Amino acid sequence: MFGREYANHLDILIHSLGEINEKYQNKIKTDENNLSFINKLKKLYISIFGIPEIGFQIRSLYFEKIIKCYLLKKNPIQILDAGCGIGIYSLLLGRMFTKARVTGGDIDKYKLQSCKAIAKELNIKNVGFEYLNITKTSNKTAYDLAVCIDVLEHIHDYELALRNFSKLLKSKGCLYIHVPQPNQKRIFSSLKNWHHEDHAHEGISKNELENRLKKLGFKIIVSMETFGFFGKLSWELNHIMLSKSFLIAGVMFPLLYVVAKMDLWTNNKDGLGVAVLAKKE
To answer: What string of DSSP letters covers 128-152?
Structure first.
């Protein structure tokens, strides 16, 4: 399970959870006066089970699967994690490619400070973090691999971001993107009106993303829908529980994680998300 290294950094996890939805913000406010004993239990729980948010776990599982299957033997030297957030994928890439230099970039300076502290604490020396706005980046060609996970839906002009990735990548460089799809079909009616407070648009469909990348000169290596039935079911149940009780969500998380892993071995249709790995020609 991903995210165990954040057990001693509850502040950054709470900050990130509060950004997802207004209901979570309200739940966090009611938990602010927790006793230190409760916080110790939270730290122990995360050190065992990782970050107990199924959406995060599913994105991480797909990311690790695709990178290991298609890129592990390529040994990229310069790697960019654009919109790195709390830095989990940057740190994972640093461990997977020990000879590479990984740069995590984000516009959230608070998160960048936390990322630097965690990398130092874990003694991961090949990972660095810096301010990055992918819509205003330079034309410098620098990277063998760029990853962008659940970021494009936050950008109004996501096509500009894609063009900038093309400029930043070396010839034959690879781009990994995960993004939610629009017009998502829900299982539970209570989540039909679910929305992320910071989304600029619903997302990008699989066909649209593939076509945009091809027009920019990318060749699609692999493309798959994510959050199919098992992923969707576990994600929705997890969020219903999180909105009602963090305690119940924590108890049920290990079981939902097992259900979520089944999503990786299913030929998904009408998935909530899409993962694409493409190569610059």
So the answer is: EEEE--TTS------EEEEEEES-G
